[in-house]
Amino acid sequence: MVTITISGAPGTGTTTVSQLLHKKLGISYVYAGELFREEAKRHGMSLEEFGRYCEQHPEVDRRLDEYQRDLLKKGNIILEGRMSGWIAYLNNIPALKVLLTADRNTRAERIVKREGGTIAEKLREMEKREMSEAKRYKNYYNVDINDTSIYDIVIDTVDKTPDEIVSMIVEHVGEG
Fold it and tell me: Which of 31, 84, 126, 136 maximizes the CB count within 10 A of its CB?
């Protein structure tokens, strides 16, 4: 049984890598960010507005985190989400915890390619979103989202292809 968490800020390649890993390993894949986006849509809010709303309504994050915890406990899954590694760690759930990183400009360029807009706009959006998330995670869980010490693998994705990253992760799965 394989349980993998893939975490990283927007534009680090978490979705691309998770989907490739899903195809390669043939195990279930859940993207927690999509669940958050669906909640924002249900509330009729943009991601930024919904993030601010969640700062005042911790029950939204807690519900999503409970769902992720339950998925991780069942195992045999790839769970992609900013907090997925921390959820495994805080609940003592055995998982290969992967963190993908990239510098801010690379991330903004990738997001512009995916969504359009300008790099300056995306940098501003990223900063607001990341500040909101950092605030919520610190307040709700006393977690410093920038603490990388809990991860089994930290991969800078700037100079690697998605396939190279997947190979690195699969190599670690084989060691587990």
Answer: 84
The structure tokens listed for 120 are: 């300056």
**Coil, helix or strand for 113?**
helix
The full set of domain ranges for the chain reads 3-168
CATH label, 3-168, candidates 3.30.420.130, 1.20.120.450, 3.30.565.10, 3.40.50.300: 3.40.50.300
- Residue pair 25/18 in contact by the 8 Å Cβ criterion: no
- Give the phi and the psi of residue 33 in degrees, each rounded to 5: -60, -35
Residue 2 is classified by DSSP as: -
pLDDT, one tens digit for every residue, the chain (176 residues): 899 999 999 999 999 999 999 999 999 999 988 888 888 999 999 877 888 888 888 888 888 889 999 999 999 999 999 889 999 999 999 999 999 999 999 999 999 999 999 999 999 988 888 888 888 888 888 999 889 999 999 999 999 999 999 999 999 986 55
- CA distances, 153 to each of 15, 21, 67, 84 (Å): 17, 15, 24, 14
Q: pTM higher than 0.70, yes or no?
A: yes
Integer Cα distance of 75 and 66 in angstroms: 14
C-alpha distances (whole Å) from 137 to each of 18, 33, 65, 117, 127 are 23, 15, 11, 28, 15
